[in-house]
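[job 4471] stage=fold_predict status=RUNNING
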Amino acid sequence: MPYLQYIAPVGIGLLYALAMSLVGEKHRLRLNAVMVAGAGAAYLGGGGMGGWEFVFTASATYVAYRALDSWTFVGIGWLLHTAWDIVHHIKGSPLLPFAHGSSLGCAICDPVIALWCFRGGPSARDLLRGGRRRTLAGPAA
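[job 4471] inference complete, writing C-alpha cells
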C-alpha cells in the first residue's frame, strides 16, 4: 500500500484538528501557538541544515509569538514548517532519523492543520456544522 504514506498524514492532520477542536475556546488558540513553536524547533536535534536550523527556529519563534493572538499566524506557522519539511525531505535529512519519509509525511500533514487554523480553529461542533469558529458577535469573518 504505497499510497498509505500520503493518506495517513492527511488523516493525522484531521485527527489533530479534531482533537484540538475539543480544547476549550479560551485556551485553543494559545495552545496551538505553543504547538507551532514546538514544531519550529523540531529539527534542531538533527541539524541537517547546519546554522540554517537556527535561522528557521528564530523565524518560527517570531511567528509563534504572533500566533498567540492570531489564528492566521498559527496557520502561517504550519505552512512555514511545511516548507522546512520539504527542504529536509529533498536533502534527505528527515525529521525522525529512523523514519526516512517522516519529513514528507509532516509536509503533507501540516497544511491540513493550517487550513483548519485559517478557518479560525473552529470547535468540533462548528466543524460538523461546516462553519468557522463562532464568536459572541456571530461567525468569524
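[job 4471] summary: The two ends are 41 Å apart (CA to CA).
[job 4471] exit 0
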